[in-house]
Specification:
alpha/beta; 4-stranded mixed sheet; 13 helices; 29% helix; globular
């Protein structure tokens, strides 16, 4: 979010009540970004149904428009049409490409641009994004011959890109990051020779699924599918894409339904990609009452509806580095859940959260302690004492969308009402969050 502190308003959050009804969460943010990007470099028209009409995908669309890609307006409940320009059709923009607060936009677009031969680009973002690390992307791209410059040897935006003729390479990524992997796969499409990306663990695989659907020559192998190889030369063709509901957005209702007495929620059309369903595994650890129904496949992605019903005395959970890539965005709401489980919950291997929109480990610890939580912050995680009573407090999202929504759920479970500064941050990934919350409480 780019909202300055002088304009941030406080929202009153009433405690108590139960959540009843059905809700359809917005389109998956990760898939929305990729549908726009892959559609832009394809030949022909790509129609995207269910694209998330929020700030981050809009930033991606604006950057693509600045490079000559025709994209219809992004509006709620309307299909988005992308008229692809092909792999070599992106134009050199007249101005700096502004990625807003979107790390996904900057990292994936970086991979797209490094192979645009003889063209120059500059990527920037808001204050938060300009202080998020980019060397994890620019460094492996340089192994392919990319030229990327920026502050601190290319670690921070603004980033200057001089498009080059790239060469294929075998690249091991130091972290299991779908953003790093996707940037490399995008660069590989225009390289000379094949490129293989090897991850230390299996991160979300939306890019692999969608690139195959668009016609890329992509193979997956190695242990647990951690070796992804792209052979250049294939022509990407425009597709019809249906974006499923974002399980990261669904996680707020999953946790709320499991914790708030009397609650019963049905979350419709949720993406169930196995690289994203770590939250369901943790809910199983907690022995929460959830049921997945109406399972189906939509444009290569598994989808279903999830029912969740309140259950008393949930078990504590353990989250470690093995599962972190499958639920990295759900840690803030899980830190709230831990406060109400019957025992001590532990999160480790989550140091990646320190370089998100905020330092989410520090922010969630700070805000939950204001409510009286017994929570201890570690370098790579949290220890949370369960069976606690939280109290209403003056809270602050610190401009982080997932923090804002997590604190909203915590406030429902607290004794006494709360206020939340920066509640508008939720619009980054879930523009209708507050209206959906009001609907479920009515």
């Amino acid at each position: 979010m780019t909202t300055s502190s002088s304009h941030i308003t406080a929202r009153k959050l009433l405690s108590g009540g139960r959540l009843i009804g059905e809700v359809r969460v917005p389109g998956d943010k990760s898939i929305s970004h990729r549908a726009l990007l892959f559609g832009a470099i394809s030949e022909g028209k790509t129609a995207i149904d269910g694209l998330l009409p929020a700030e981050d995908p809009i930033s991606t669309a604006e950057c693509l428009r600045a490079m000559g890609v025709e994209i219809s307006p992004i509006k709620k409940s309307e299909k988005v049409i992308v008229h692809g320009v092909g792999l070599e059709g992106l134009k050199e923009p007249e101005n700096v490409l502004h990625c807003g607060n979107s790390g996904t936009s900057m990292r994936l677009i970086l991979g797209l641009l490094v192979g645009c031969k003889n063209k120059h680009f500059v990527l920037t973002g808001d204050n938060s994004l300009s202080n998020r690390p980019m060397l994890r992307v620019s460094k492996p791209l340089k192994l392919m011959g990319a030229e990327v410059n920026g502050r601190s040897n290319g670690n921070y935006a603004p980033l200057a890109v001089q498009g080059k003729k790239l060469r294929g390479a075998i690249i091991g990524t130091p972290v299991a990051s779908a953003q790093v992997k996707s940037a490399l796969l995008l660069a590989a499409l225009s390289a000379e020779g094949s490129t293989t990306v090897i991850e230390p663990a299996h991160s979300r695989d939306h890019s692999e699924r969608m690139l195959k659907a668009f016609g890329a020559n992509l193979e997956i192998g190695g242990e647990m599918g951690r070796h992804i190889t792209v052979k250049p030369g294939s022509v990407l063709k425009g597709q019809n894409i249906v974006v499923p509901g974002d399980i990261s957005s669904a996680s707020f209702w999953l946790i709320a339904g499991a914790l708030i007495p009397g609650s019963k929620i049905r979350i419709e059309n949720v993406g169930l990609n196995p690289t994203r369903t770590g939250i369901l595994e943790v809910l199983k650890q907690m022995e929460a009452c959830i049921e997945i129904v109406n399972k189906r496949n939509i444009t290569g992605e598994p989808v279903g509806d999830i029912n969740v019903i309140y259950k008393n005395q949930l078990k504590p959970f353990t989250v470690n580095e093995e599962i972190i890539p499958r639920l990295i965005d759900e840690i803030p709401i899980l830190s709230v859940a831990g406060c109400f489980c019957d025992g001590i919950s532990r999160i480790t291997g989550a140091s990646e959260l320190r370089v998100k929109e905020t330092d989410r480990l520090a922010v969630m610890t700070r805000q939950l302690k204001l409510m009286g939580a017994n929570i201890e912050e570690h370098q790579d995680g949290l220890t949370i004492q369960g069976s606690q009573t939280l109290y209403g407090a003056n809270l602050d999202s610190e401009t982080d969308h997932r923090v804002a929504m997590s604190l909203a759920i915590a406030s429902l479970l607290a004794q006494g009402d709360s206020t939340l500064r920066g509640s508008e941050a939720a619009s980054v990934s879930y523009p209708d969050f507050w209206s959906h919350l009001a609907k479920l409480r009515s």
